[in-house]
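Pipeline run #58 for the internal structure catalog. This entry was flagged by the ingest filter as a single-chain record with no existing model, so it goes straight to prediction. Upstream metadata was stripped on purpose; only the residue string is passed forward. Reviewer on rotation: M.T. Logging verbosity set to normal.
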Amino acid sequence: MDILVKIYPEILQNYNWNILYHFYSKIKEEGLSKEDITDILQNKNISKDLKYELRLYHNHISELKDRKSVLEQEIK
């Protein structure tokens, strides 16, 4: 209970109380454990990293396609 007293002012100043309550409701509804929540957050971070990496590959492939088109035009 001390932890709630400690974080309460920060939640009110920096976050919306409804967000915390919604998070709590979902945890209770789904029956999530601490490990489940940790896994979900880690997977979200991994997904963000993969999204960034995918964007880099997509941009690189697009550049290579453009180069290929230019080279094909030079050959003709």
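catalog note: The mean pLDDT is 86.
catalog note: The first helix runs from residue 2 to 14.
status: ready for reviewer M.T.
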